[in-house]
Amino acid sequence: MSGEFVTRAQAALPRLGATDKRFIELVLSDPEAVVRGSVTELAQKAGVAQSSAVRACQRIGYRGYQDVKLAITRDLAQQNEQEQELAHEEGIDSRTPAGDILDRILRRSGRALADAVQTVDPELLSLTIDRIATATRVLVIGIGTSAAPAHDAAYRLSALGLVTTFPTDVRAQHLAARHLDESCACLVISHTGASRESLLAAEAARTAGAFTVAITSFTNSPLTRVVDAPLIAGGPEYGFRLEAMASRLAHLGIIDTLFVGIAVRHPKTSTKALDVMADITIEHSL
Q1: Is the distance from CB of 66 to CB of 47 less than 8 angstroms?
Q2: Which of 135, 213, 253, 282 qualifies as a cystine partner to 229, CB 3.0-4.6 A?
Q3: Are 110 and 80 in contact (CB under 8 A)?
Q4: Which GO terms describe its molecular function (predicted)?
């Protein structure tokens, strides 16, 4: 199962206390039990007080148990047999036809993009658009599998006329972060939010006074505790490799959102910059 509830619960799970986690993990293991049963029944099954069960629902962003039940009911209604075939990475093996692999991967990629709407904070997203749009300089950070989305982000921001840098060397990233100031912004992209190199650069940028934002997959990671604006967009849990791939697409979706948001904030400037990009594209075309 994927959808609003699962996305929120998985993103929040690492930061929950033991009691809250026990109840939410029980719900994740059998979401349909929430639809069939009462909060009292599930609380007893989890070995927690009813008040603790309600509090656990509130800790992951709902007003209470009934809101969780409604969210799960909606998610279940959106499922079909084909979407349920691949719950984990092991569902695809050497015997799986290529067409089936394509169908399953793209369906789950689409779900990751849809689920990101539930986890990205609109106010933090709006703040990020405003601060990056007015920054004198933007530093983009990303390593490993996050390097490609980071490169894309830097290119798109540059296309809007923003002074943007994306050093590929981790020490160069750290050094560039140290040279930022209050007029600058630093965008860090990291699936886990726990990469030491990205974290060092984010800490350096914030210490320097820059506005810091992270595009990441988990609510409670070392990175989200450092930056000013964590934008959480994680893929459903399919097994780590597929999860990371789905999340990368969600991160690209957030980058596209920033691009459009900044462009419409300053239409005249953006139009002029995009016209320059169009001219260059034509010059490099055969």
Answers
A1: no
A2: 213
A3: no
A4: carbohydrate derivative binding; DNA binding; DNA-binding transcription factor activity
Give 142's pLDDT tier (boundaries 50, 70, 90): very high
* Distance separating alpha carbons of residues 250 and 13, to the nearest angstrom: 19
Sorted by where each starts, the structural domains of the chain and their CATH numbers stand as 4-118 (1.10.10.10), 119-283 (3.40.50.10490)
Q: How far apart are CA 48 and CA 51, in angstroms?
A: 8
Planar angle of CA 215, 218, 223, nearest 5 degrees:
60
Nearest Cα to Cα of residue 229 among 112, 143, 124: 124
Q: What is the pTM of this model?
A: 0.68
CA dihedral 230, 234, 237, 239 (to 10 degrees): -100
Distance CA 228, CA 256 (A): 20
Query: What's the token pair of residue 262?
Result: 């900044």
Q: Could you identify the residue written with the tokens 């350096």?
A: 204
The three-class DSSP label of residue 138 is strand
Range with lowest mean pLDDT among 24-28, 112-116, 167-171, 195-199: 112-116
Token pair listed for 45: 């099954």
Q: What digits encode the pLDDT tens for the residues 175-221?
A: 999 999 999 999 999 988 988 999 999 999 999 999 999 999 888 88
Angle CA(113)–CA(163)–CA(146) in degrees, nearest 5? 35
